[in-house]
């Protein structure tokens, strides 16, 4: 049986090219995608339990990584479909493209709240819940009461925040943000704090919430989009029958997105 593992860590990487070469070696029996940049690592991989165990151990303990990825959190889920067909390791400028230079996420994670704390937080009247994902992801599933920023791309998120920040501050709102695995929130919340906003994020994102809360459906409506061949999962981390046509139906470029997704599937 195959399992999917998602992970990331913001940490200074002195030589991304050397790290990428070592990653190609330790991940050779997996499929998926790993991005490496000066700011850290971001990956999604799939394989059998034994192969994933070996990879995760190597990533955290292999001397070639110099301890940079110690303590990294892996979020696993079982697969019905094969999530990926190949293994790709790329060196990038950013591990998640935000479009604003100089943003350094808080390494201590001081603005993270656990899934249990998140449940209490989003029930408060002084909290505004922001879905830090694309609109098609929001339409497929969301936390109850969450706001869709209506952004087609993560790079458009800063403009939405700048427009609404004055009102949030004037109303004394705490901004509670979430995304799929946490990485988008890590990047944007660091920048939002510099704007003077009181912002917190769901630790480990939606995937961690589903993994940690057996009754996650009490707070979540719908499904969660995942960027691989499974397309979507439910609150039990199980693959659903949702199709690309259903995901992209309301997108202006929906037909192109569906065709592209299916082309990538066939190409492997």
Break the fold down into its secondary structure elements and pairings.
Layout: E1 3-10, H1 16-26, E2 31-37, E3 40-47, H2 49-61, E4 75-78, E5 87-91, E6 112-113, H3 115-121, E7 127-131, H4 135-140, E8 141-143, H5 157-170, E9 174-178, H6 183-194, E10 198-202, H7 205-212, E11 220-222, E12 224-225, E13 232-233, H8 244-248, H9 254-267
Parallel strand pairs: 2-5, 6-10, 7-9, 9-10
Antiparallel strand pairs: 1-3, 1-4, 2-3, 8-11, 12-13
> What letter string, H or E per element, gives the SSE order?
EHEEHEEEHEHEHEHEHEEEHH
Count of spatially separate domains = 2
Shape: globular
Parts with pLDDT < 50 across at least 5 consecutive residues: none
Oligomer classification: single chain
Helix content: 25-40%
- CATH class annotation of the largest domain: Alpha Beta
The largest sheet has its strands arranged as 4-1-3-2-5
Instruction: Please outline the major beta sheet.
Output: 5 strands, mixed
């Amino acid at each position: 049986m195959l399992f999917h593992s998602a992970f990331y860590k913001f940490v200074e990487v002195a030589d991304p090219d050397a790290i990428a070469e070592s990653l190609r070696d330790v991940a050779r029996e997996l499929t998926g995608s790993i991005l490496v940049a000066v700011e850290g690592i971001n990956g999604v991989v799939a394989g059998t339990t034994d192969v994933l165990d070996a990879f995760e151990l190597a990533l955290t303990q292999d001397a070639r990584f110099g301890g940079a990825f110690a303590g990294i959190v892996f979020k696993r889920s079982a697969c019905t479909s094969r999530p990926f067909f190949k293994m790709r390791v790329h060196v990038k400028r950013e591990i998640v493209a935000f479009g604003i230079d100089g943003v350094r996420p808080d390494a201590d994670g001081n603005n993270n709240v656990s899934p249990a704390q998140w449940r209490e937080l989003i029930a408060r009247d002084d909290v505004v819940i922001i879905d830090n994902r694309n609109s098609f992801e929001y339409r497929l599933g969301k936390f109850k009461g969450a706001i869709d920023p209506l952004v087609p791309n993560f790079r458009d998120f800063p403009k939405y925040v700048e427009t609404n920040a004055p009102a949030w501050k004037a109303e004394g709102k705490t901004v509670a943000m979430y995304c799929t695995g946490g990485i988008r929130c890590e990047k944007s919340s660091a920048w939002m704090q510099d704007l003077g906003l009181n912002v917190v994020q769901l630790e480990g994102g939606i995937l961690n919430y589903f993994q940690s809360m057996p009754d996650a459906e009490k707070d979540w409506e719908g499904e969660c989009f995942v960027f691989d061949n499974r397309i979507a999962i439910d609150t039990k981390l199980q693959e659903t029958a949702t199709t690309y046509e259903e995901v992209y139906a309301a997108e202006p470029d929906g037909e192109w997105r569906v065709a592209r997704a299916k082309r990538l599937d066939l190409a492997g």
